[in-house]
Amino acid sequence: MNWWRKDTAGQTVDDIQERLAREHQTVGWAHQAPAEPLTTSHAHRIMQQHRDCPVQDCPRKSAAWYTLVRAGKIKPDSGRNY
To answer: Superkingdom of this entry's organism (predicted)?
Structure first.
């Protein structure tokens, strides 16, 4: 019984490790700023997902917040500098 030694998938360990590394780069850190501009609906979703994060400490929430400000969905406090 040598079933565990047969190459059934046609992939090497190196192939799998490279794929996993690419997937990790794509996903990134959960609080990392997005690589592309956000849509308004995506910004709303991020604001909900990161509701416990302070805007100044979370780059992803910050990007979502500024997207919603530019879209007129959030009106910043006029007494603060943004």
So the answer is: Bacteria
How many residues does this entry show for the chain?
A: 82
Check: CB of residue 31 under 8 Å from CB of residue 60: yes
Q: How many CB atoms lie within 10 A of CB 55?
A: 15
pLDDT digits (tens, 9 = 90+) for 5-19: 665 567 888 888 888
Q: Is 57 a member of any domain? A: yes
Per residue in 22-35, pLDDT (tens digit) is 776 555 578 889 98
CB atoms within 10 A of CB 79: 5
Cβ atoms within 10 Å of 69's Cβ, excluding its own:
14
pTM of the model: 0.62
On whether residue 21 sits in a domain, the answer given is no
Buried b (16+ CB within 10 A) or exposed e, 17-45: eeeeeeeeeeeeeeeeeeeeebeeeebbe
The single residue listed with the structure tokens 């990007």 is 63
